[in-house]
Description:
Elements: H1 4-16, E1 23-26, E2 33-36, E3 43-48, H2 51-118, H3 125-131
Antiparallel strand pairs: 1-2, 2-3
Amino acid sequence: MLTKKQLEEITQRANKATEGKWDWVPVVDDETLFITGEDGNEAVAENVYTPQDAIFIANSRQDVPNLLEHISKQEAEIERLIKREQEATELLRFDTVLMDKYVTEISKLRGLLENVIENGQCSTIDNIIKEL
């Protein structure tokens, strides 16, 4: 995993590279390739020996910034989801505390109702509810 510092260093290198779209062109001998800047005059890389390498290098000019942007968006989404998870956890913790209080109160009420019924003070739940 790349550190924040490493990502910043990659970004700085990408920002300092020759601007614009890069392309590759064969040299007269058709065995050596040059990577050129957008204007076609400036050699960005020389003596590249395979078209695959030339394509890779030429596309890195837009691929690296695109990947860095993608990483940045993913990191922002991760931060947003972490914050949301923390908020949900806090709400759940609050709900659990309330649930415990409700269970305690219901247990107390059940005990009171059982006493009322056992002592014959009320014969039905409807009567108990009326007394509450």
